């Protein structure tokens, strides 16, 4: 199942980025997923349609992190999303 990108929105509050499900039906309430700055950037880049290699190159350059290390971070982030039922 492909993700419906407009279902989710990122908000920044209290120094944390929050990924909110805008289509929640109420009970049981799913708390927003807290994201760090890099997680928010990964989400926004995926939302724009960038692939893993494009995201890893951009973030690797910005944060001066080797390619494979940043790819592992991205895979870990995607794993956290899958645990929440968000298939990207």
Textual characterization of the structure:
The chain has 88 residues and is an alpha+beta fold. Helix content is 45%, strand content 17%. It is built from three helices and three strands; from the N terminus they run βββααα. It has a three-stranded antiparallel β-sheet. Strand 1 and strand 2 form a beta hairpin. Helix 2 (52-63) crosses helix 3 (67-83).
Which key terms come to mind for this protein?
17% strand; single chain; 88 residues; alpha+beta
Q: How does the overall form come out from the CA principal axes?
A: globular
For the termini, the CA-CA separation is 9 Å
Classify the secondary structure makeup into a structural class: alpha+beta
Q: How many strand segments?
A: 3
Low-confidence stretches: none
Share of residues in helices: 40-55%
Mean model confidence by pLDDT: 90
**Widest sheet, order of strands:** 1-2-3
Q: Largest sheet, described in full? A: 3 strands, antiparallel
Compute the CA-based radius of gyration.
13 Å
Count of individual helical segments:
3
The SSE string, one letter per element, is EEEHHH
Hey, roughly how much beta strand do the residues contain? Answer: 15-25%
